[in-house]
Every structure is written in structure tokens, then in C-alpha cells.
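Backbone Fold Data
Goal — C-alpha cells
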Amino acid sequence: MSRMSTVEKSVASAVVETLEKLYGEPLKQLELLITATGLPVYRNPKSGALLWVDVRELRLRFTLSVNKIEKFIEGLQRGRLMYTQCRRCGTKYFPPQVDCPRCKTSDVEWRETSTEGELLTWTVINVKPASFSHQGDYVVGIVKMPDGFNVTAWIDADPKTLKPGMKMRLVVDRRPGEGYITYWFKPA
């Protein structure tokens, strides 16, 4: 098992630190509420509705088997983005699937995606989930690939320069600041 790099540790530490900052004060307020009322319950000032505030912190870290899509993982490690195509009905899947829900078979062929596509739409993410709170604002877009499917991914570009129909180039590399291999697009 490989050790986490310094960059990966600092990203993980930054996420934990940000979560503590985000939730530290509300948790203190919750403790005061319980001390005062005996319950984690309060009335919404606008609606008057009685609201329950959960006292349990829910942080998730999980492990998933990716055995069936090992070729996708290997592709990323080689700088390639892979998809699957059902040999029976011809349906293409991205993210890849090894079981075709259309014809109920597991007979798929692995293929490499094209390296260029066309930008359909995008949005700027300013209000981020806690796990991305260490990131600045970022752009997520949908790119139509000539292979016959769309890919949703980060777009490395100033959103003011983006236009529908723009040619985009696929990048498979280590994400700056996080250190792990993933994919995103840049203007071509």
C-alpha cells in the first residue's frame, strides 16, 4: 500500500480543518440549545415550525470495489480515458459499465475516448460541498464527445471565455493541489 504524499496529506488536512471551522460554531450553539431546553429542538423564527437538529456528526469515508472497471483505472494511469460499448446492442457507456442495462449482457468492449469534444454548457461552482471547500471557485461543464456520449468534468478555463460549441481538449493527469489522477477539459 502506498503512502500518501505531502500534498495529499495537506489537502486532507485542509479539508478536516475547514470542516471544523464550518461546523464548530453551530455545534457549540447546538450544545447550548440542548442545555437550555433538554432537546435538540427549536422553533423556526419565520415559519414557527418545530425543527429537530441532529446531534450526530456524519462524515463519510468509504471504500468501493472497482474490480470490474479496472481497465478504466489502468487507462487513467496511462493518461487515457476509457468507456465501454456493448458488443450486442452497441450502446456506449461513460462512465463505463460492464453490465449493459439495455440488453442485460456483460459482453462489453473497452475503448479509449477521443481527446477533443464540444462544450455544451457549464456552471461556476461558488458554493462548494465541504469536501471541496479548500478549492477556489471552479467550473464544471458538459462536453459532447464525438464517440456518442457526454462527459461531465471540471473545465480549466476562465468562465468568461467559454462559449457553447467551443472545442475542448481532454486532459488526464494529476489534479493540481490534490495529487491524484483524474480528468478535466481545457479549451482546444
